[in-house]
Amino acid sequence: MKFFMKDPVPPVEAMVHTGSHHMLVAYCGDMCLRLFEDHHQAFKSLGTVPCRFSISCLCYDSESELLLSGTLGAVVTWFILANRRGLQMAHTVPMTGHEFVQRVSLNGPQGSLLALCENIVRVFTYQGQGQLKEVKTFTSVASGSTITCSFTCVSQGNFYAGNRAGEIHAWGLDQGNFLHSFQAHSSSVICIHSRPETYTLLTAGIEGVVREWTLTSGSLLRQLDIDENLRQLQFIDNTTFFCQTTYSFSLYHLPYFYSLFNICGSAPQQVQRVCCGHNWTRILCATEDGLLRFLSPVTGDLLVLTWPLLVMDKAVAWAFDSDKEELFVATGGSEVLVFDTTRSPCTAKYLVCPTINSWDNVRCLAYVKSHLGKGLEGLMFCGHESGIVRILSHYSCAQIEKTIHSGPVLALSTLEGPQKNSLLCSYGMDDIVYLTEAVLQENKVILQSAGRIYCGCPLKHVILLPDSVGAITENCCWYLWNYQDFLTSSESEQSTKFRGTKCLHECTITSFDVCFSLKLFVTGAVDGSVRIWDFHGRLVTDLDSALHFGPVCFANNRGDLLLTFNQSIYMVSCLKLLPPAQLIHLDNLSDACEIQEVPKPFLPSFFFSFEIVFVPKFVYLRQGLQELQGLETLVNKRVIAFDNTVPHVVEEERHMSLVIQERPDLYFFEDESIDLSTPDTKRNYYPHRVPAQLHLTGWDGFNVYHILQCFFGQGQKWPFAPDGYIPNSVIRACLWPEGIPIFLRCYLYSPSRDKDWDMTELLKPQTLPLITSVEDEISMRKQKDKSKRQKKTSFDALDYMAKQNWMGRKLTEGLMDNIIEAILTLTIYCSVEKYKKYFSALARIFANNQISSRLLSETARRLLEDITHYNPHIRELAWDALERLGFLSRPFAIPLTLGLLDCDGNVRAKALYLMIRFAGIQTKTRLLQLLKNPKTFQEMQQEMIGDVPLGQLLGIQASDVQSLLSHVAQRLNENLTLFFKEKALKLSFGISRPGELEALTEHTLIPLSEPEKITELKKRKRRVHMKSRKLSTYGIMYGAYLGFWIPPHHGSKKQG
């Protein structure tokens, strides 16, 4: 139905419906408000109300029944008169900064009112009678662009705002503190919506793209292309939104089948269900940052986590002893590190070396809970490189070993929960699966064979089930062997009796788990696909999603599934996952509730503040004896920082002493071995009689021996616990009663050093050949002190300028150009710290001033040159500066690809982060598709950096993209990590001379030799001398402009 106006109406600039008043209020740019009845009365005109000022937006609050209008420097409130007789102005609420109010919103925290004022969001509360009171402001500190939309997420405690530059800014709701920002779109943001149930953020840009971002890392998860002329997007509920374009209106539904289980803060590498007892399970999750954590399968809460010792980077396998609450971790060698999980974070309890052969590495671990007698409540098995399977135990009767396989043991598996029989399933390089049983005979545990399976093909995953053995082959097929079939069958009979299913995935299966109660198993492949099958190999569920899923496992015996992506774990309910035919089996399951554990409080020990952690090391000897070989020192240079409840591993930049670099082990040899077959809390052991062999650089060994001999000669005894655990507090107190010796003191904070490079240090004859002439050296000596003073003045000026608030300052174009040119010159040759300071100053300049096209191009040229710098720290900082200065966009995918092939891990990590953020590329498959697309090269050629195309700055031709394509295909894994890290590609651009291209070579990128470094440093230094005084001059000029001056020597500030 259409209604036609009798009187002509000018173009409507703002309109709002007044709800129960059934009235429309419109502003048409002519200083008056027009009132109309709504569609119930055919839009009949009710008159006009003069307003004496222009109106930018209108909003109606149904609770207070107030009409609100925004204008320059104020928000005006209006009363609606009875019987729709008109409007009455209530109050004019001025803005503190006299900003232009471009939008008024009602979705503020706790029912407050939001006024979007240029680059500030002001929060108001109602005071009655149409009055408003400002209670809080959210100010953008990183950008001066106008804010266009906002969203309040109370459950997360965050406030989000988008601006015309395509940026998203986040603040804390309680304190109003700025948290972070990122580039979401290439043009204005028109909508923001947070999804707490998935811990993601949805944004829409006027360019017609809706994107979903992960809130854990800020990376792009997926995007939806709608229309280039998107005018409005608004969410109706949490999963439905409408879009309005120039000529169309559409409705979209965003179904999600998963709910947030736990935010890890780092990418999960493995998740598995661990049965600890009757109705008591935990979820064990290993993440990329080297942490192992236990999660509650009921709530997803973090129960306990390990401390991030450096040795955890080498972890290859782990198993949990629920009786002693010990977590065993195989560290890639012949040792197993044991953590105490009774506290959080877990402390390193002791090291056990099951073999005296250092080459016989531990490959896998498994624990079975059984009751053999003699106090043996459970057994911990470990498989070795030699094919031997050993039992780790404090009891001598259980410290046994048996050679089972003719090659390395690749996998071990035991049954979940308490068992009558201690069965062990093992698989080795010989492609044979052995079933072995541990039994107690004549006060000693023995391993006796119970059967074998000749596989005929390599296996990737093996699991022991109550009546069968399941496996996933290298060809992605499912095999299931029943006990009665292979226990009595010969090798020839097995080859004809057992056959696998068809291929389950088109690529390698990386994760696998079984839900035995429902006779189902789940597989996850390297391409991110997840599928559920029954034991006959029939497909039950295929998760069809654009998301790339990581490791998976079942959360319980009901079939609830745990998925990993977005650095988090999500749960899919069995009610959404399984068909009705499978859900019928749930009725037959026990409805006993699982134990809901209370998370342990995170109380890190004081001894985690030291650089080294002492751990007793035990070595298994013959005849069930174990010997305390000494105290192993574990390097500790990381800490855990929490973002609310999410743990993050932080690398501490503190002084690492020679003790850590050398990793000395404190060995004490005694005449007799320790036999812990019978735990005795009253027994104390005498310390070793031979003094410690401490290999410590720069320490007089005689003094070490004297200290230890004096202590041990007094007959002191080690306070051993029954399980061989000696806390670090006891070790340090008993080992050195007078305090920690000087060579083992650990510094909590290290004095920072100014790493200002000096050519004279690099040219020392004892370390490098003489490659400069005598004249150069003489000239260098003469200018050394002079250049240092100049650089000191320049650096002080820049350091001060970088810290100032430049908002509101207007510099002349010539002065600003000269300052930028001088800064770029100083970055040619400087230390890493000063390089960071220089570009921090540039970031302030770029954020608050209009930069000429020529200098934009020159700055980008310098940074693109530095991404191929010989120093990896400079390369990483150059990528960071490209991001901070706003140069990066989707066409930078090609140079970012080169960053993925860099020889340095930090540079590769930075390039991967930027690739995900700006190009939305997370997998090798999508990257190859992007590089193969001819439009990618065209976009790079058309992308303008200042007045120069990006393609010209890089000097890349179409043939070079094809060469890069082949290197990506050969050298990158699916997750964009380097396949052969020792063979990273040496790539460079012809940036210094546009038009010339250094072809992509086949050589590996190795660190430059010292002469090559010096040659490059000399070239850079000669360029610096041309303008080394320039910045100090402009710094003083700028200081005089602001009202202060910086003396050339000490850089202190005085009022002018």
Automatic annotation (TrEMBL):
Quick check: keyword Secreted in the entry?
no
InterPro entries, per database record:
ARM-type_fold (IPR016024), Quinoprotein_ADH-like_sf (IPR011047), WD40/YVTN_repeat-like_dom_sf (IPR015943), WD40_rpt (IPR001680)
Q: Which Pfam families match?
A: WD40 (PF00400)
The answer to whether keyword Cell membrane applies is no
Which positions does the entry assign to WD repeats? Answer: 182-223, 505-534
**Keywords noted in UniProt:** WD repeat
Indicate the transmembrane segments per the record: none
Q: Which domain of life is it from?
A: Eukaryota
Q: What is this protein called?
A: WD repeat-containing protein 87
User: What is the originating organism of this protein?
Assistant: Tupaia chinensis
